[in-house]
Amino acid sequence: MIKKILFSLFLISLVSSVSGAFYVVSNLPGTERDFSSIQSAIEHAAPYDTIYVKGSPTNYGNVLLEKPLVLIGEGFSGEIHSGHTAKLTRILFTANPYRRTISSGSVIIGFEFPFFPGQRANIVTVANGHTKIQDVVMERNWFWFAEIAGSAENWVFRNNIIRGWVKGGAGNGNGGAAGFHFHNNILNSLMEFQRGELTIENNIILGRLKDISDAQVANNIFTREDYFLEEVYGSRFFNNIAMGEKIGKEDCYSNPASFESEYLCEGSANTGSSNRVAFDPGFVYWPSNDIMGGSVFKLAQGSPARSSGRRGAEIGIFGGTHPFPVNAFMNPEIDDPFPTFVTSIY
C-alpha cells in the first residue's frame, strides 16, 4: 500500500507519467523496504525505474549512477513521514562508452547533502572521452557543491537550495557544461560556464557569478552587498535586482552600477534592460525566517518586484514557470540549514 501512495505523490510532483518498476529503500531496520542500500537498488533496477528513499538519521553515503534512474528522497514534499530527510554524501554521474554505461536522463529529487569538513563536491560528473551526460534534472535538493568534470549538456536545476557553488568545468579540458538551466533556486555561486546556452532565471543569488559568458540572466535577485559579477561578459541581463550598489570591480566594468556595463578586461559587453541596482526588493521576514522553506525571500505585497519581471511577472523564486514550493523543505531536525559563512564561498 505504501508504494502505491508514494508513487502517486511522485506522479503529482512531476506532473508526468513514469514507466518501469518502483522500489523502496530504507536503512532503518524494521521498516517496509525492498533494499537497505541505495546502491543495491540501483544495481538491481532497470533503466528508468524509480527508487524511493525513506528519510533516516543515518546518511546513505555515496551513489554511483551508470544508468538513467529516478531517485526520490523523502524531502521532496512536506510529508516527511519519519521526521528526517534522505541524506547522501555524493552522487557520481558517469558515461563510459567502453562499458556501455551512461546516467543521462536521470532525475534526482528531494535529497539533503550535509556539510562535512573538507567537503568535496556532492554532484560530480565523469564522462569518458567525448561521451556526454545529458538531460539530467535536479529538483528540490539541498546540496553544497556540484562540479562538471566531463562533458554534460541540457541539465535542469529547479527549486534547489545550493549552499555553495556549481562549477561548469570551463577550461578543464574535458568539455564542461553546456545548455544548463537554473530556475527558481536559492543558490550561492555559479562558476566556469563558457560553452553557452546558460539560463539563470528567477533565482535568489547570495554569492557571485564568475567566469561566465553567453548567459541569459533574468528575473533574479542578487543579495550580496559587495560586487557579484566577476569575468562575466557577452551575457544578457533582463529584469534583475541587485541589493548592493555595484555589480563588479571598477577596473573591469565601465559602469559598475549597471548590469549592462561593458566588460573591459576581456570578452564583450553585457546587454539587457530593466535591471535595478541598489534596490530593496522588500523581503518579508516572517514567520520564522525559515530559509529552508523560502519564506525569508517572500516579497511584501507592495514590493515593486512583484510585477517588474517580464510581462509583469514576479521577480525571484516565487515567479516564473517553477515557483519555489514553500513547504517542500520543512524539517525540524535542521536548526541552522544555511550558515552565515556560506556567502563567503564563491
Topology (SSEs and partners):
Layout (H helix, E strand, L loop, with lengths): L1 H13 L7 E4 L12 H7 L5 E4 L8 E4 L4 E4 L12 E2 L2 E7 L4 E2 L4 E3 L1 E2 L10 E5 L5 E2 L2 E3 L2 E7 L3 E2 L2 E3 L2 E7 L9 E2 L2 E3 L2 E8 L4 E4 L2 E2 L3 E5 L1 E4 L2 E2 L6 E5 L2 E3 L2 E2 L28 E3 L2 E2 L69
Parallel strand pairs: 1-2, 2-4, 3-6, 4-8, 5-9, 6-10, 8-12, 10-13, 11-14, 12-15, 13-16, 14-17, 15-18, 16-19, 18-20, 19-21, 19-22, 20-23, 21-24, 22-25, 23-26, 24-27, 26-28, 27-29
Antiparallel strand pairs: 6-7
CATH class: Mainly Beta
CATH architecture annotation: 3 Solenoid
What is the CATH fold-level name? Pectate Lyase C-like
Rg, nearest Å: 20 Å
The share of residues in helices is: under 10%
Distance between the termini: 45 Å
Number of domains: 1
Beta-strand content bin: 25-35%
Low-confidence stretches: 1-18, 286-294, 328-346
On the 0-100 scale, what is the average pLDDT? Answer: 79
- Give the count of helical stretches: 2
Global outline: globular
- SS-based structural class? mainly beta
Q: Give the tally of β-strands.
A: 29
Task: Give an overview in words.
The protein is mainly beta and 346 residues long. The chain has one domain (2-344): Pectate Lyase C-like, CATH 2.160.20. The protein is 6% helix and 31% strand. The chain is built from two helices and 29 strands. The longest helix is centred in the first third of the chain and has 13 residues, at 2-14. It starts with a helix and ends in a 69-residue tail after the last strand.
